[in-house]
Amino acid sequence: MPSPIIEVPMDKCKICNHDIEIVMRFGKMPIANGFICNIDEEEFFYDLSVGFCPVCFMVQLISTVAPKKMFNESYHFISSTSLAMAEHFKRTAEEIIVRIAGRKSPFVVELGCNDGIMLGHIADKGIMHIGVEPSVNVADLARKRGINVTNEFFDVKSAKAIVNKYGQADVICGSNVMCHIEDINSVFQGIDILLKENGILFFEDPYLLDIVKKTSFDQIYDEHVYYFSGLSVSRLAKRHNLTLANMIHQDVHGGSMRYYIIKGSVGSISESVKDFISQEELMKLNKVEGYLKFKNKVNKICNDLKAVLLRIKQEGGRIAGYGATSKSTTLLNYAGIGLKFIDYISDTTPTKIDKYAPGTHIPIKSHEFFTFDNPQYALLFAWNHKAEIFKKEEIYRRKGGRFITYFPKVIIE
Fold it and tell me: Are residues 399 and 354 in the same domain?
């Protein structure tokens, strides 16, 4: 039997301690990356709900999960499994290298370096660096690349330790990590300590405006404590004597935003910051009213998807999931899509194969199994890598295989 739901009540904003307003409740949910070895294994469940702060405009989880339950020695997300992401992180490293050119003994810090997919390019250039990575198994992969890594969560204490050992950083960066850290105020306090006066922090995470426009609610799960916008990041930075100086949209992960932050309360702010914040205000992301239709749109997608899957099964069709993603945990469990609809989920991550999906217990099979099995339909959970996957699966599609996608609406293609 699964363990009881464990909730951490939180009706105050994690940033400014103001009362927050509920956007949507998804009910009990397992750990998004909590793939289990057998179906009798005890699973941890928590209450997945999202709230909005009307003061600092931060959209956030109401209840949170202890970080060590998510980021530990058996963390299943490995960045290098995607060729598109490998190219993206290569470009990120190239941007950093250009930015620090001409600086004396530059120092680069990456928060949440995962398996070193980005920082490896920095290390290859002989640039002083350190990756801060709490998950032991992926940190070990980074070390095998020759990357300097420390196993810990970043905060004021770790920032001071890094400064004492290496000095202040010219660049601090993070990809899909800031939104994971509940005590984000401590992180920004640490950044103020670690960052040089003429240094820069930049980080990228799923962009709230994209989530709302596409109704891509599967981006909401335990690891993503915050859902950032220019509105909220600018206020968060200001709280810590920092300034949001630039915003550059990224196409990865279904729509992400890269935020550039500099020291000081007064600095040069690009037109892009003003433009994106204007778009956010137009969508009313600074008011709870901007989120009122979200729940209805989520439920429509879930109902439409289940109707399509049920019709296919009633007609004798076979459906496999494609990509055992963290995102799929929210979709499958909230929509009630289990083995009745999906025979198995294909994935390329070695640590996930032959395990079972959290909550629904759908078996995870290798991509080789998927190719041999050749099901009529593939439900694309890794929809954010659609272009890369469609290119990879040209033969599958030529043989009649069809993909099912669901954002912003259900389509068979």
Answer: yes
